[in-house]
């Protein structure tokens, strides 16, 4: 029987394949390599390693791991420099489309479709933000509604301003960071609406990003409806303590209402091999600090190396 | 001097343009939005109905039944997705008579492949349906398509055959000059032998501009919910409850992209631009679906959206040459997508009574769709990527859309984020564009040569950045 061409090509075998080149993926690869494991492949969808760190130009990273206060971009650069000179194979601009039987990992990049096989597979695919649609907030669906992370990418990577009069929904850390960032860029951040009675993010972020800039955080406040035909024109919200409803004009609505581990690859993976795949970093659970994700990933890398080198 | 001016670039306007483009005619289509399908058509559910829910003898029944038949060849020639998955109108034990009435209605219309199925059949073929559903009318000719892709397929084919499309242009006045019509827009003035008014929600206003009385359009809002891809297809067929006078009810719709959509509601409103979604509608949809069987976890809803049906009190399509050279199409709501190709034929037959139609020697009958990397075989993917490496660069990770597909959409006329989304599914997945919006804008910026802050979501002042 003649096999199709793509099946006849000898498949590359790896000891360890890590999907996702953010801090957790880099750390898993690095520590496994430092523990003596060879044939490690790190696959990253973007052109550069570092993941979401690359759009975090604020400080607050690395205090535990590098014993030094760094920006996200510095942390990313410092950690990816560790990978240089190791035998880790790094594939950037490559997107994993599926994991199948026999631990085969298929990815797509500008060279075409390739399949590689790994004795161990680690998913370090980070997390994604909850969106307005997921909360099914009623109202219109105009332009000007973004997740806090998208607004961060707009400003820090592309130098574009999402809007001038901004309301932030939720009080997650990215929302707090973006309240300050937008203020520094000249936008007016009217307030943050938090449906719960207390802050969702870190206290230090509230002090440095809201209090220092006199940006109000309204707890027990709920977004009720979005207005605006083409671009956001305002919102209706309710103070759940007094039960009073209010309307305010704004042109931008940013959502910082929680992060969800991004492990969707597993949902399409045969259950027979799902159990063998390890999740790490924010793909496992959402971490408060990158330093913690790095430490856990280094621990995992070490464990895997130990297991495989036996 | 034009032979024909079509007002409105939704599914009906583009289908008419596509039907007429094979003839030696000078045709101009004027659309007020910046891209086709941005009005009523953009919220269409994508169902190609059998036609049996429309009353025998009505224009909508005749045209829907005919349109349904035309979709097989059209979807092949113009390369847009279409699958005949069948529909089931479900009924409880005491409602069988209503199914039999519908069956009779369908037979009179001339619809084939209908049968009434029982609980046993349903248990095997639709295990997710409630056990309280005892019977269903199966219409095997019903299908699903992607309404935007159908619209853009018509648009592209008509354009390839020299139909001129003037987008972002609004008709302001229409007057009769001897045997001709003069149309003044915000951009220019045109003269034409024929006017075809298929302006959807605003068709009554356009008719008034020409001083022709017509039925008033009362917008009827329909809200729908889209479920996460991981929910998969809740049912194999399109599931309908028994129809009510004004609506086909809340449905379970397997989409062409293997996701599930539920809805729509039916609410008469005054404002032709009111596209708000509400919590009440969401709850109503979820509760109605529960009556059919499936329990929807609200966490799996990835979006809610609404659209407006251009309904009239007539309760049927109205298509007529109301004045010499002026064809009105009023109240083309559901099953408008189904009927669209037949409406194209019908309008062609009206035109042919006035103008001798000759087929163009240069007529191009085929159109190829934008390649969809995700749905291709490995070898087809490799061949395409070898030819153009942009098809190997994933931009939208949720729906696995590549840079090559986005560039192709832009080259075919997409100039807004929604235009790209409707053509490629980019941003349509669970992250709602939080990962890909800027990457798409970067490609638009480069390809169209426009600054970021001139890029819009859907035209007008829907700017993304400032």
Could you describe the 3D structure shown?
In chain A, the strands form five sheets. In chain A, strands 1, 2, 5, 6, 7, 8 and 19 form a seven-stranded mixed beta sheet that branches. A five-stranded parallel beta sheet of chain A has the order 10-17-11-12-13. Chain A contains nine helices and 19 strands. Chain A has two domains: 170 residues, FAD/NAD(P)-binding domain; 129 residues, FAD/NAD(P)-binding domain, CATH 3.50.50.60. Chain A is of the alpha/beta class and 310 residues long. Helix content of chain A is 27%, strand content 30%. The N terminus of chain A is likely disordered. In chain A, a hairpin with an 8-residue loop joins strand 3 and strand 4. Chain A starts with a helix and ends with a helix. Chain B has 466 residues and is α+β, with helices and mostly antiparallel strands. Chain B has a domain of 82 residues: Arc Repressor Mutant, subunit A (Orthogonal Bundle), CATH 1.10.10. In chain B, the strands form five sheets. In chain B, strands 1, 2, 9, 10, 11, 12, 19 and 20 form an eight-stranded mixed beta sheet that branches. In chain B, strands 13, 15, 16, 17 and 18 form a five-stranded antiparallel beta sheet that branches. A four-stranded mixed beta sheet of chain B has the order 6-7-5-14. In chain B, strand 10 and strand 11 form a beta hairpin. Chain B is globular, with a radius of gyration of 22 Å. Classes of the chains: A alpha/beta (310), B alpha+beta (466).
The CATH class of the largest domain in chain A: Alpha Beta
Mean pLDDT of chain A: 94
Q: Helicity of chain B, in percent?
A: 25-40%
Q: Which regions of chain A have little confidence, pLDDT < 50, spanning 5+ residues? A: 1-9
Morphology of chain B: globular
What is the helical fraction of chain A, as a range of percent? 25-40%
Regions with little confidence, pLDDT below 50 for 5+ residues of chain B? none
Into which percentage range does the β-strand content of chain B fall? 15-25%
Order of helices and strands of chain A: HEHEEEHEEEEEEHEHEHEEEEEEHHEH
What is the CATH homologous superfamily assignment of the largest domain in chain A?
Answer: FAD/NAD(P)-binding domain
The most extensive contact between chains is: A-B, 47 and 55 residues
Outline type of chain A:
elongated
Main sheet: strands, sense, barrel of chain B: 8 strands, mixed
CATH level-two architecture of the largest domain in chain A = 3-Layer(bba) Sandwich
State the domain count of chain A: 2
Mean pLDDT of chain B: 96
From the alpha-carbon coordinates, what is the Rg of chain A to the nearest angstrom? 22 Å
Number of helices of chain B: 12
